[in-house]
Amino acid sequence: MSQRIFALCLTLLAALFCWQNTQADDRLKSTLIFATNESGGKVESEICPYATDILNIFHYNTFHLVGRSSQVIEDQPKGVLKPGSAFYVRYEVLKRLPAHYQVHIDLLENPGTMEKLLASAELRIAKEAPIYIKGPLWRSGSLILVLEID
Fold first, then answer.
1. pTM of model > 0.90
2. What pLDDT was estimated at residue 9?
3. Could you tell me if residue 102 is left (phi over 0), alpha (psi between -120 and 50 degrees) or otherwise beta?
4. Domain boundaries, the chain
5. CA contacts within 13 A on the Cβ side of 44
6. Cβ atoms of residues 129 and 136 within 8 Å
């Protein structure tokens, strides 16, 4: 019994040290990736931090960076991230809590013209815990939006 209590205390202590608080200078970062399956598989260097997760979750082996964008959240509780010339992410921070942000996002295509809503979600985003959203089929693969707090 005492070993269980010790293990529980150790786990809680480790969680306390690993917990990342939200801060005023936090940035919401969006990375838009075109993922497909091609023989030989190719990963652009900018996508390496996400490649293993995308491969394990969505089973694609080739990744191309469409674009990236980031913005300080405290300055802009509502805003637009433009991770590519043909795509953008409209966001609104609904809540800022000690461990995460609650955010509503819309992924849209063709900014400024006949924009098309590709995906919409309400998310909880924490530091060091990127969120992967598989968008629609596009060309011969899929768009994958990665959102994270930096």
1. no
2. 45
3. beta
4. 21-149
5. 13
6. no
